[in-house]
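Thread title: Can someone regenerate the structure for this chain?

I was given the following input by a collaborator and told the matching structure tokens would be attached. They weren't. Posting the sequence so someone can regenerate them.
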Amino acid sequence: MLSLPEVHILSGAGKPIFSTKDDDDCSNVSTAGLIQGISSFADDALRQITTPTHVLTFLPCPPLLFFCATPPSLRGLNVGRLLHLLKHHLLVFLTQNGVSLMESNPNYDLRNLLYGTHGVLMAVVSAWTSQVWPQLDGIGVRLIPIPPSTTTTRRHIQSCMDVPGLVFGLISHADGVVAYKQGLPDHPLPIEDVHVLLHILQHMPSFRTSESWTPLCLPTFNRGGF
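Best answer:
Regenerated them for you:
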């Protein structure tokens, strides 16, 4: 198994939001401050630094800053895609309006709003080193066929999808899609959002162990709201 890259997400003010490092909070604060200082010194125009041991990638997305340090074993993988996916996972829980809190209050600690999502973000980084979908834009999802003999199951799925006013309907199993329904012909569910939803459903235990209504943002469809 490939080693994981070192990833940091921080605010424009250098406040840590997420890190793949297991260091204590003080260490992450120091690292985040150093990353922000380097990017700020270059007026946020810096994108990459190549060293003998790592490639350092910077992706400013005001009011956030994404950073990734990849060792030689991971060179050639799509780092930009990884940082893009991490941003989309943040938007699922925060929306663009939530992220914009950092603009009016750069010292606001977004970790308060992202409690319980660290495992999901870590799983994104892990999947990036071993799976295809985190590497490529627009790749399809796995479809899980329903055996013809399971008539009762088919009817139950159909009844779940026949909901008045339904915009999107999606039934998944593991990392695949069992059924999908598009309620409005002019508004398809972007494949990027399907990948993100499947990943979150797989890696957030609360979705698997309890039934609950949870608002989620579909960042490709509309990042402005849940």
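The mean pLDDT is 86.
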